[in-house]
């Protein structure tokens, strides 16, 4: 590897910098990553031509070269730094082949992207972009590993096993209202309701349909496995202008018909009172608290309490207390069997 050398052109850079609109570090990094392979392919290109190619002035090109001049591979000694020379008015870049090499996805990165895109594609209607991107990742990852295309694939639950999912997706795609027969676990009854679908989503490994419920005259979240029957109506399914979806990261947002849950938490789990919208908090002198929440799905409370590992417990309602106890016993039994 060769060493690095270059001239600064500091006076020209200083005069132009003040007139240049500010740019973010991300914008500049993107340009530098594009600039390195381009300069390697256009040895001796005039600074003016490089400036036109990247849509900047000549002083900015010089500043970029000054930055590249101190970049390189780990070690950052004389032999690892990029060799950038431009004192003749023409740019010569060497010792930058590693940086200019095309980026390759590792197997783990490809699997992670594949999982995300498959989940996105199964959630969205008309997900052509996700599907095209997914195919490109499969081909690129396979080429990098010397394997046939399409070898990376994940068996994700896309909800298609539920008989209502196809009807719901079709109605959503066509903008049709749906009629649901929905089981309300907290009241142990089935209800009939018309819903304008806003989105279909997977949250914490559970599929939901979110939409404006005309029975409740409000936005509601419906668990797919509690939809006993669904049919598309020949009625426009556009939600009212004022309907707003819930925060995807927080289905503890209270709703009129949601379950009221009381949780006692130690001071180590007291953060739940700040993180989740609640109906009231009673704080103890030792930092513990008793918090009342309204939740759309009791299963989310069960998972929250189990994750907290004894730092919180459900106090009300009794049926949820029993459900958490049963799930805890099952988890402990499974752990014992595994040991």
UniProtKB/TrEMBL annotation:
Ranges for domain PafC HTH: 27-138
Entries under PROSITE patterns matching the protein: WYL
One Pfam family here: HTH_PafC
Biased segments, Low complexity type: 1-16
Residues annotated as domain WYL: 164-230
Start and end residues of each WCX domain: 261-332
Region Disordered: start-end pairs: 1-25
InterPro entries from the UniProt entry: CBASS_pafABC_assoc_protein, PafC-like, PafC_HTH, WCX_dom, WYL_dom
Family annotation (PANTHER family): PROTEIN PAFC (PTHR34580:SF1), PTHR34580
Name of the protein: WYL domain-containing protein
